[in-house]
Amino acid sequence: MENPISIFLSINNGEKTMQIPILPSEIDIPQTLMANETFQTINGEIQLIGVSKLRKITITSFFPDNPYSFDKTGQAGFEGWGGQRVAAKKRVEELQRWIKRRLPIRLRIPYYDINMGVTIDNFTPKVKGGSGDIDYTLEMTEFVFPQLKVQKATGRVKPTVPKFEKYVPPPKEEKKSSSSKNRPGKGYDSVAAKWVRDYVAKHKGSIRITSAGRSKSHPIEAAKIAKGKQPGDHARNSAYDVGGSKRVLDKLAADAKASGLFKQIIWRNRDLFTGRYISDHDTHVHLAWK
After folding, report:
1. N or C terminus: which one in the chain shows less Cβ crowding within 10 Å?
2. Are 124 and 18 found together in one domain?
3. Domain range spanning residue 233?
4. pLDDT tens, 176-219?
5. What is the pTM of this model?
6. Full DSSP string of 212-223
7. What share of the chain is helix, strand, coil (3-state, %, to 5)?
């Protein structure tokens, strides 16, 4: 019974396709691995689920320079590549041309439902004895195509990037005054506020404060007041928003919760204390203190 497995490589949306003529003796099916991270907190270890790692696959086989009954491309495929004393060399040269073009390759193994973009990390051909066959090892890594957002009105291609609110720095410290009017927002003199600023300074370049104090005339606060609601924590000088690397923000949210200094922490659209869903908080951590 004929082996049902076939392996195909193609470039530039099917501009050229190559079927692997001789199947490798074994195939490691690429599996999805997660880049999870474990952190130490005062309450013990916690694990944060990371993003998936790039899958890898290696094919070790040979390009035939002689006709074989187990050649998946058959006699016609073998002759199509030039036949004896030519076919193996031509296949090697074709793969080397693909590598020089610096384009992602598409790997398909229909039997295992594998259809993925890859880059060729290493291609090592070796001439096999006097038969003319060429042994090779082909090492590949998954290639994830960038997702772009197209604006229909202009036709311009614009990468989707997180939007940060304009950073409003906390009020500068001034000498204490008996008049509350001249007193800086005391909320930003608190232990919790200093904890946030120190944490951001420690991870400078990875995260930054994106929003701090707001006046009641700020559009967000004004909208709350118009609906009969109380101004938010930002208007009371008792909250920071911090944006940047999601990996570092995951750790910030966990460490802030463990510190016991905050009454509310919102991250990835969830209140970490109540579990309640709160939209528009997937690009920054909201930290409000008591």
Report:
1. N
2. yes
3. 182-289
4. 544 333 333 457 888 999 999 999 999 999 999 988 876 666 66
5. 0.47
6. ----TTSHHHHH
7. 25, 30, 45
